[in-house]
Design a protein that fits this description.
single chain, 275 residues, alpha/beta, 2-enoyl-CoA Hydratase, Chain A, domain 1, 2 domains, two-stranded parallel sheet, 14% strand
């Protein structure tokens, strides 16, 4: 395993066996987002996106939580000592736009499979980040909530967009307006979770999924993801099929496709190289 220096203890990054593992590490605040964490997360995602040794990206949290989203306690402390100093409104908006694009936006566009592993609650922007991933797995007993209405916010980090793609606009509005806590059973029924594991099986479960993706046909995965993302955003059918067939035929020229074809004939498991 290679431990990457992220520049902050708020975020850990480890790379091993083709898997990049990001761990939010503020357990005393349920891994609420901090400035250093966001900066490191964005930089880390940009790094692993172009690292050929990384073929699957996993995001999780330390201490029995995924991520509580924005640091509400920090907001309150900041308000109490506000003196007019600091960034202007426009500067804050611009910085958050950059942070969102570099984190949840990067996960959505990442040309590699991404998995959010929820060892506990995911709330607010933390849920948004989980929804930005391709797959989500959780421990039994975890709760998911948009949470924003509870603190007078409308939502950020793309959460409403991602949620609408999965559950539709009517249900997304309900989940935002009421900010109810969803059990893993409720979240699974809505399509928000791909798998739920008992606590003692969570790590083995997500590692099995990540290992399969990290050893799979990475070029095909890249274009599968792009195809689905294009379809989800309402691309015209014939425009979509034109791009889809280009991707399909490109994959047919790869060494991975040739290897898979040979393995099929020889009745063995293929070994994919990502070429």
């Amino acid at each position: 395993m290679t431990k990457i220096d992220t520049g902050t203890d708020d975020l850990h990054l480890d790379i091993a066996d083709g898997i990049a593992l990001f761990t939010f590490n503020r357990p005393d605040r349920r891994n609420a987002l901090s400035g250093p964490m966001l900066a490191a997360f964005g930089a880390g995602l940009a790094r692993v996106e172009i690292d050929p040794a990384v073929r699957c990206v996993v995001v999780t949290g330390a201490g029995g939580a995924f991520c509580a989203g924005g640091d509400v306690k920090g907001f309150a402390e900041g308000s109490a000592r506000a003196d007019g100093a600091g960034p202007s409104f426009d500067e804050r908006v611009h910085q958050q736009r950059l942070d969102q694009r570099a984190t949840s936006g990067a996960l959505y566009r990442m040309p590699k499979p991404t998995i959010a592993v929820l060892p506990g609650p995911a709330a607010g922007a933390g849920l948004s980040i989980a929804l930005a991933c391709d797959l989500r797995v959780a421990v039994e007993g975890a709760v998911l909530t948009t949470a924003f209405a509870k603190v007078g916010f409308s939502g950020d980090y793309g959460g409403a967009w991602f949620l609408t793609q999965i559950v539709g606009p009517a249900k997304a509005k309900e989940l935002y307006y009421f900010s109810d806590k969803l059990t893993t059973a409720e979240a699974s029924a809505l399509g928000l979770l791909n798998a739920v594991f008992p606590a003692e099986e969570l790590e083995a479960g997500w590692r099995s999924m990540a290992a399969q993706l990290a050893t799979g046909p990475s070029i095909a995965y890249r274009y599968m993801k792009e195809n689905v993302n294009r379809a989800a955003t309402g691309t015209d059918l014939f425009d979509f099929m034109d791009v889809e067939v280009t991707h399909h035929n490109y994959c047919g020229q790869t060494r991975d496709h040739l290897e898979a074809s040979k393995a099929f004939v020889e009745k063995r498991t293929p070994t994919f190289e990502g070429r």
